[in-house]
Amino acid sequence: MKIALLALLGLALGTLGGATLGIGAGLAWVGIFKTTSFEGYSGMLVFFNFMPIGAAIGAICGAMLFGAIAIRDAAVAAEPITRAPS
Description:
By secondary structure, this protein is mainly α. Helix content is 80%, strand content 0%. It contains 2 helices and no strands. It starts with a helix and ends in a 9-residue tail after the last helix.
């Protein structure tokens, strides 16, 4: 259960972070390549192309990262504690 919840948390945080990075990448694209702003084209390019792609990539990476951390933590916690012979 802990693994699934951490994966969902990673999904949510990855989506937000990826969307933010997508907006930043889109704004950089518009600035570097001098995309026209006629009738809001540059804004639509950023918010309809770069932001969803960034959110999708961020969601996948965040869920995988948090899931891997949870699985690794669960494997460490499952090891039995042994006592040294006295």
